[in-house]
Design a protein that fits this description.
GO molecular function: diaminobutyrate acetyltransferase activity
Number of strands: 7
Pathway: Amine and polyamine biosynthesis; ectoine biosynthesis; L-ectoine from L-aspartate 4-semialdehyde: step 2/3
CATH architecture: 3-Layer(aba) Sandwich
Oligomer: single chain
Organism: Luteipulveratus flavus
Helix content: 25-40%
Bound molecules: coenzyme A
Strand order of the largest sheet: 1-2-3-4-5-7-6
Shape: globular
Largest sheet: 7 strands, mixed
Family: Belongs to the acetyltransferase family. EctA subfamily.
Low-confidence stretches: none
Distance between the termini: 70 Å
Protein name: L-2,4-diaminobutyric acid acetyltransferase
Number of domains: 1
Strand content: 25-35%
CATH class: Alpha Beta
């Protein structure tokens, strides 16, 4: 008589599939939901995100984890400086943070907007995650990031911390 030693089967592991694409109007509601859940962003109306997904899809990007919207970047090229990609908002759902998704979105966006030479964004001094993100992005591209004042507290009609302008260039 033979005896078999039974060992538990190893649990099946699969890493999530992360994909990037420009948003469509059908994604506008998800952009608004992700921005609202982030809680640190100035959330705009759902209408604004629908409009953005319609008119600024080329300069925006959506990240999907296993087919579900998990993060986005909204941006535009400045009318007076079309080679400048202004990043308006970046957000990643809480459960997917710390995996490099925001960094990858920025790189994918720069690939998408292949004529952009400069990236700009504004950040308040208390947003250490955002400052770390853009600093790391510039470092990974081997380029320079600078900071200057843009919108002071006195420019805002309500109480609002100053927004500093961060400029990253050359992008490539
Ligand atoms: C900022 C935010 C988009 C980062 O998303 P993320 O996918 O977790 O970021 P990544 O994993 O790509 O990290 C990118 C870099 O930023 C750093 N970073 C991210 N979150 C950080 C935090 N809370 N504190 C310090 N550094 C942080 C990472 O360490 C990483 O640098 P490293 O490669 O040197 O480690 C996310 O925290 C978020 O959605 N925050 C709320 C919305 C917001 O404030 N957006 C920015 C203003 S528009």
């Amino acid at each position: 008589m033979t005896s078999a030693i039974l060992t538990p089967a190893a649990p099946a592991t699969s890493s999530p599939t992360i994909a990037f694409r420009p948003p469509s109007v059908a994604d506008g509601g998800d952009l608004w939901r992700i921005a609202s859940d982030a809680r640190t962003l100035d959330v705009n109306s759902s209408y604004a995100y629908l409009l953005w997904a319609r008119d600024y899809a080329r300069t925006s990007i959506l990240a999907e984890v296993d087919g579900q919207p998990a993060g986005f970047v909204t941006g535009y090229t400045r009318p007076s400086a079309p080679q400048t990609l202004m990043v308006w908002q970046v957000a990643v759902d809480d459960g997917h943070r710390g995996r490099g998704i925001a960094l990858r979105m920025l790189h994918e966006l720069v690939d998408q907007v292949d004529d952009a030479a400069t990236m700009e964004t504004t950040i308040t001094d208390d947003n250490t995650a955002s400052i770390a993100l853009f600093t790391r992005f510039a470092q990974q591209r081997g380029t320079i990031i600078t900071r200057e004042d843009l919108f002071g507290a006195e420019h805002f009609p309500e109480e609002h911390a100053p927004e500093r302008l961060y400029r990253i260039r050359p992008l490539r």
